[in-house]
Known about the structure:
- By secondary structure, this protein is an alpha+beta fold.
- The protein has two domains: 3-65 and 103-173, no CATH class; 186-228, no CATH class.
- The protein contains eight helices and seven strands.
- The protein has helices at 3-14, 70-74, 81-94, 119-133, 148-173, 186-201, 206-216, 219-228; strands at residues 16-19, 31-39, 52-62, 66-68, 100-102, 105-116, 139-142.
- α1 packs across α5 (148-173) and α6 (186-201) runs antiparallel to α7.
- The longest helix has 26 residues, at 148-173.
- The radius of gyration is 22 Å and the shape is elongated.
Amino acid sequence: MDIEDERIIDAVKRTEILRPPRQSLATFGTTNVYYYLVTEPAYAELVEATTETVVREGRVIAERPRIVTPYYLSHLEGFSSEAKKYFDTQIQTHGPNAPGLLYTYKNEPKELNIVSDNLRAVVDNINQEIDKRGDPLASIIRGQDELWDVSLMKFIYEMTRSSIADNLKQMGNKGLLNIDARGIPADVRIRIEKLFESAYKGDIEPRELKEELDRWGVFDDYEDRFFALFGRGRR
């Protein structure tokens, strides 16, 4: 383990979720989580006495969780060979069609302020501000200044882990986790129909639809409809 790895592990251990979201991530929609990430300034160790606190504000946007399977993940691009081996292991352990959830996030940094007060007082003030707004998803994270993004990643991980059970339960209650004879979850069939609708309207390129069909290995199920997008049936 090199020094950089040790620093990251230490940053994860030192990260504290001082105010977690009061709600789970939405199962059927987008979730916007406003965060305050507070740190002592990196230069604090070089100054004998400082009562300054760095406050980073931003928004984590969580897209609707998608139902996926080990087979689907093994056909996604952009993963290393090690990741592909992991997906193969999951296929061997749970089968190619075991449903799971894939979460995607986008971070939108907003502001960075250096406040002339100690960290505890700053956190108390932020808590009061959130309480006045009544935002159930606003959160406060304490991290390390130089590796604040590592602290944010830990927060996202914890937020996801605490939401999975509820998201799966809601999807299961609606039958979206049911697997058909081809090994495709019901929710995926619905999503494919929406992609066809978007392709017909011109909102997405047919290539995007084709790639999704190929990842699921079901292009033959939709082949005639796909070619009909180009104004001709397949002969």
